Amino acid sequence: MPKALWSGYISFGLVTIPVSLVTAVRDKSIRFHLLHPEDGARLRQKLVCPFDAKEVGRTQAARGFEVAPGEYVIIEDEELRALAPEKSRTIEITDFVAMAEIDPIYYERPYYLVPREGGENAYSLLLQAMVEKDRIGVGKFVFHEREHVVALRPLDGVLCVEIMRFADEIVSREGLLDVPAAAKSADRKQMELARQLIDALATDFEPAKYRDEYREAVLDLIERKAKGEKVVSAPVEPEEGEVIDLMAALEKSLEKVKGKGKRKKEAGKADKPARKAGSGAT
């Protein structure tokens, strides 16, 4: 099991359940260091004052917030510490809401909650009750010296706590689609083709089939160069032009999808062993 990042309690009503917080996702982004190309030494970043060209140590730097172009309010570390939320070992659930009511746009980062010794029965009871009632717990949680709003939800037999964005962090969708009302009603034939295309592409979600092909290509490049191979870049394919005829694009897409489905069926038939002569019902 991953190392616990935090240990505490789930609290709702008069019930407390001892739990540990562990990571649910791992960032696999590729990060590069900046090197001096002449000797390969790793470069260092320094803070330099643009007025006197003097280097300033990080412990000497002040923290400022820009309130107008070129104007800053200086905030002291002691002032921030005085405002920091009181440390707590409790995820306090204050509401249970319908699962469908929370738009995924509010979810920022997930963690798993696992029961600690003595909390297994209460943990399982809460998990089962939430599944049966189709509810998500919402509350607050102090983590990394910051208070977060969180959603506690069942996920494949465990409780997942989602760090959520606050309501004022969500960008309003008003005005994003400033389209005249007449243009919003889709053509009936186009709509029917769009429905057929969606039906043709409908399938179960298989997360493993979606791969970060760019990251894999970069890792392959790194491995080959580390082995001393000379890497030659492949020619860049020209981008396709803008689609203008929506009807033609839908029809072409549908034909392409149906063609793939037909080839899969034919391949499946070819893979089946041929029946022996004389076999079958008599």
Structure write-up:
This protein has 282 residues and is an alpha+beta fold. Among the domains are: 6-25 and 84-167, Ku70, Chain: A, Domain 2; 187-200 and 249-263, no CATH class. Helices cover 28% and strands 27% of the residues. The chain is built from six helices and eleven strands. The strands form three sheets. Strands 1-2-8-11-10-9-7 form a seven-stranded mixed barrel. Strands 3-4 form a two-stranded antiparallel ribbon. A hairpin with a 2-residue loop joins β9 and β10. The longest helix has 26 residues, at 246-271. The radius of gyration is 29 Å and the shape is extended. Residues 276-282 have low confidence and may be disordered.
For the record, what CATH class of the domain at 6-25 and 84-167 applies? Mainly Beta
CATH architecture of the domain at 6-25 and 84-167: Beta Barrel
Taken in chain order, the helices and strands follow as EEEEEEHEEHEEEHHHH
Number of helices: 6
CA-based gyration radius = 29 Å
The fold-level CATH name of the domain at 6-25 and 84-167 is Ku70, Chain: A, Domain 2
**Percent of residues in β-strands:** 25-35%
List the quaternary state of the chains: single chain
Q: Level of helix content?
A: 25-40%
Q: What's the arrangement of strands in the largest beta sheet? A: 1-2-8-11-10-9-7
Q: What structural class do the secondary elements suggest? A: alpha+beta
Uncertain spans, ≥5 residues at pLDDT below 50? 276-282
Main β-sheet: number of strands, strand sense, barrel status? 7 strands, mixed, barrel
Straight-line N-to-C gap: 59 Å
